[in-house]
C-alpha cells in the first residue's frame, strides 16, 4: 500500500522537476545534458555516467564532446592516456546553479501555500523517504 503511493507520487514529481529544469535554460540544453553536467559536478567518470544514465559509453562520449563544445566542461588528460578528467567550467557551474535556483523558486512559490504543519509533515516524510532510499541502495 505504501509502495503504491510512492510509485504513484514520485514519477509525477520527477516529471515536474524535469520540466522546470529545461524551462530554466530555455531549451538551450536537453534534460540529458543537464543530468550529465550534474553527474560531472558529482565527480562521476564516463563509465559510471553511462551506467547512471542508462546509455552506452559512446553516447556519454558524444554528450561530453557536445558539452565541451558549448564551453560547459573541460576535458583534460588523466594520469594514463586512456583516461580523462572532466570538470565543469565556470559557465557550466553557472548553468547548474541557474537551474537549481529556478526549480527551487518554482517549487517554493507553491510550498509557501502549505500550512506550517503540512510543511513539517512533508519534511518528515521526505527524510523518511531518504532513509528508505539509502536502505534500498544497499539491497
Describe this entry's structure for a reader.
- 72% of the residues lie in helices and 7% in strands.
- The chain has 139 residues and is mostly helical.
- It has a two-stranded antiparallel sheet with strand order 1-2.
- Helix 1 (2-24) crosses helix 5 (90-111) and helix 3 (46-53) crosses helix 4.
- A hairpin with a 6-residue loop joins strand 1 and strand 2.
- The two termini are 20 Å apart.
- It is built from six helices and two strands, in the order ααααββαα.
Question: How would you summarize the topology of this molecule?
Answer:
Elements: H1 2-24, H2 31-41, H3 46-53, H4 57-69, E1 73-77, E2 84-88, H5 90-111, H6 116-138
Antiparallel strand pairs: 1-2
Helix pairs in contact: 1-5, 2-4, 3-4
Oligomer, anyone?
single chain
Strand order of the largest sheet: 1-2
Radius of gyration: 18 Å
Measure the end-to-end span.
Answer: 20 Å
Q: How many individual β-strands?
A: 2
Please provide the ordered H/E string of secondary-structure elements.
Answer: HHHHEEHH
> How much is the average pLDDT?
93
**Approximate helicity band:** over 70%
Shape: globular
- The secondary structure category is mainly alpha
- Uncertain stretches of 5 or more adjacent residues: none
Amino acid at each position: 500500500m505504501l509502495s503504491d503511493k510512492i510509485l504513484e507520487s514520485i514519477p509525477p514529481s520527477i516529471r515536474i522537476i524535469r520540466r522546470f529544469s529545461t524551462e530554466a535554460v530555455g531549451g538551450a540544453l536537453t534534460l540529458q545534458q543537464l543530468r550529465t553536467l550534474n553527474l560531472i559536478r558529482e565527480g562521476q567518470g564516463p563509465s559510471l555516467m553511462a551506467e547512471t544514465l542508462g546509455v552506452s559509453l559512446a553516447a556519454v562520449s558524444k554528450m561530453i564532446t557536445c558539452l565541451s563544445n558549448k564551453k560547459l566542461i573541460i576535458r583534460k588528460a588523466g594520469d594514463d592516456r586512456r583516461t580523462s578528467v572532466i570538470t565543469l567550467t565556470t559557465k557550466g557551474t553557472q548553468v547548474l546553479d541557474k537551474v537549481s535556483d529556478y526549480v527551487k523558486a518554482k517549487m517554493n512559490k507553491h510550498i509557501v501555500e502549505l500550512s506550517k504543519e503540512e510543511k513539517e509533515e512533508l519534511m518528515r516524510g521526505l527524510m523518511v523517504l531518504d532513509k528508505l532510499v539509502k536502505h534500498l541502495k544497499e539491497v
